[in-house]
Design brief:
By secondary structure, this protein is mainly β. The protein has one domain (about 10-295): TolB, C-terminal domain (Neuraminidase, 6 Propeller). The chain has one helix at about 275-280, and strands spanning about 15-20, 25-30, 35-40, 45-50, 55-60, 65-70, 75-80, 85-90, 95-100, 110-115, 120-125, 140-145, 150-160, 160-165, 170-175, 180-190, 195-205, 210-215, 220-225, 230-235, 240-245, 255-260, 265-270, 290-295. Strands 1-24-23-22 form a four-stranded antiparallel beta sheet, with no helix packed on it.
């Protein structure tokens, strides 16, 4: 068998690069123009922007748990927080509500989200957690925010709506409902944003624990953050196999994205909520952000919301 460069662990380096502890770090994305990593702290109710060059962290506090953030064509941000979509303007730290969802489910909140190749913002909901990864089942839905600020619901009966991304040819939508312990795939029509033909792509092994956030690399392979599993795994969508594992020094890995020069670095978010004193003492970097270098694969730039 020919061993490819990314299949060896010898060149890979994992380091803690942003040491301010987050409660639940999530939704990382690289803002190339600013050279910054943008992400949220869900239960900390903050949207954050961190510059690796200067190690300068900026935050905007919001009024509800914030599940995800994405770039807009106009240069500001779109956020999914509480049960609403909003526009965040960093300069005056204001959030303007543009749409509500799940108004009949007062205990629900948004979780992970991402913009599709057509400029639409997808984000899903879940019931508020009783404790980490423990929720009232089947309460969530997957929503899509369009450029005109109208909202479409794709499907419901979700436990914890989480990672999502699209294949490089835009013909497949990948999606994680965390408590299914699986990554699913759908046929995708980028013109109409219709999804169909749901099937299981990969079911996590016991030691991989709970699938959380997800991103795709420039070779079309998926990277899955494993919550309580202390690792990110690389999945080949064509074979449905785990082809690479990178372990991290904390268990509560929440999401991942590529960034840095030419998108050659991977940034990984983590959480500190739900840890007792002994666990926290054993893993003091929980809630920090990590950088993985030496993967010998690039990522792609995030899509931007058209509205």
């Amino acid at each position: 068998m020919v061993r490819r460069p990314w299949q060896t662990m010898t060149s890979i380096k994992v380091e803690c690069v942003m040491g301010e502890k987050l409660r639940i770090g999530e939704s990382p994305l690289w803002e190339e123009k600013e050279g910054t990593l943008v992400f949220v702290d869900i239960t900390g109710q903050k949207v954050c922007r961190w510059n690796p060059a200067s190690n300068h962290l900026q935050t905007v506090s919001v009024e509800a748990p914030v599940g995800s953030v994405a770039l807009r064509n106009s240069g500001s941000y779109v956020v999914a927080l509480g049960n609403k979509f909003g526009i965040l303007k960093w300069e005056d730290q204001s959030v303007t509500t543009i749409a509500h969802v799940d108004e009949d489910k007062l205990n629900n909140r948004f979780n992970d989200g991402k913009v599709d190749p057509g400029g639409r913002f997808f984000a899903g909901t879940m019931a508020q957690e009783l404790r980490p990864a423990v929720v009232e089942r089947n309460q969530g839905s997957l929503f899509m925010l369009l450029a005109d600020h109208s909202v479409v619901k794709h499907f419901d009966q979700i436990d914890i709506s989480n990672g999502l991304d699209w294949s490089l040819d835009h013909k497949t939508f990948f999606y994680i409902d965390s408590l299914s312990y699986a990554v699913d795939a759908f046929d995708y029509d980028v013109t109409t944003a219709s999804i169909s033909n749901r099937r299981c792509l990969y079911r996590l092994e016991k030691e991989e624990c709970i699938p959380d956030g997800m991103c795709i690399d420039a070779e079309g392979k998926l990277w899955i953050a494993c919550y309580n599993g202390g690792r990110v795994i690389r999945i080949d969508p064509e074979t449905g196999k785990n082809i690479h594992t990178v372990k991290l020094p904390v268990d509560k890995i929440t999401s991942c994205c590529f960034g840095g020069k030419d998108y050659t670095e991977m940034y990984v978010t983590s959480a500190s909520d739900g840890m007792d004193d002994q666990w926290a003492a054993r893993q003091p970097q929980s809630g920090c952000i990590f950088k993985i270098s030496g993967l010998n694969v690039k990522g792609i730039a995030p899509y931007t919301f058209a509205g």
